[in-house]
Amino acid sequence: MSKVHYPTAIEASSAPARTRPSSYPEPFASRMAGREKLPLGEVFGLTNFGVNLTRLKPGGASALRHAHSRQDEFVYIIEGAPVLITDAGETPLRPGMCAGFKAATGDGHQLVNRTSSEVVYLEVGDRTPGDAATYPDDDIAAELAPDGKWRFRHKDGTPY
After folding, report:
1. What is the pTM of this model?
2. Which of 27, 89, 133, 154 is the most buried (most CB within 10 A)?
């Protein structure tokens, strides 16, 4: 059995981008056209949590506004000025600011780039089995399957 060798360190911007910009089904996937994720955790073979270097073009969004049942999430803004949208309203962010989203609160969150400049941030999330996501603004729900892939359905339970 051969051992997999992972790098010790890399320049973050050199990590390969996700081959598919979004795992959402249409009509939602195309709404993520302004987002690029570099999955840094995968470069090092990390399995307990994920780390992405994410870029939002002007007009881009981090995700549909969502909340996780089991996954905690954290973002740290490196460049640009996104707006954080939660159930509490809108919060302007700037470089050096961070935000955390505790699992099971039901508080949907999303970053949007309403500026003419790119936004760059780090996002960190765990990979807790059995996670599910709710989307308060859209007719979609998701469950993390045992194979690690998201399964999407309408809120009435019918699959996409």
Report:
1. 0.94
2. 133
